[in-house]
Amino acid sequence: MTPLLQSASVGLGIGFLLDLLRTLLALAGVCLLVWVGARWLAGRGFGVPQTGPTASVRVLRRIALEPRKNLYLVQAGKRVLLIGTGEGGPPSLLAELEAESIDVGVALGQPARQPDA
């Protein structure tokens, strides 16, 4: 191998390594930027399911009728919905109930309150 070809192959190898290092650093920078952005959005509630009393949609009760057939009592805002699910199709709205007629504590499985005598 002539010295000219030998120096060209060494130069080509170093250039390739520098390009590879530059690409890996750019990839690490993009991953860091995505991670920081995801943490920032999660801190503002984006992509985090709401649970508890402040959630806009809550499943109050699930009743299993058969292994793959269920009834759900769902509170969506101020509305209370009775939804049926089965293996034969999409969920179906069976009824919209009066929110005042449902004791949310009982629907959540808590014991009913006894009236004060």
What can you see in these coordinates?
The protein is of the alpha+beta class and 117 residues long. The protein folds into two domains: 1-48; 57-107. Helices cover 38% and strands 30% of the residues. It has two helices and four strands. It is elongated.
In short:
The chain is α+β, with helices and mostly antiparallel strands and about 120 residues long. Helices cover about 40% and strands about 30% of the residues. It has a 4-stranded antiparallel sheet with strand order 1-2-3-4, with no helix packed on it.
What are the key terms here?
117 residues; alpha+beta; four-stranded antiparallel β-sheet; 2 helices; 4 strands; 38% helix
* Number of contiguous helices: 2
Number of strand elements: 4
Helix content: 25-40%
Series of secondary-structure elements, N-terminal to C-terminal: HEEEEH
Q: In what range is the share of β-strand residues?
A: 25-35%
Biggest sheet descriptor: 4 strands, antiparallel
What class, by secondary structure content?
alpha+beta
Radius of gyration: 30 Å
Number of domains: 2
Identify the strand order in the major beta sheet: 1-2-3-4
What overall form do the CA principal axes indicate? elongated
Distance between the termini: 106 Å
Q: Would you identify the regions where 5 or more consecutive residues have pLDDT less than 50? A: none
What's the rounded overall pLDDT mean?
79
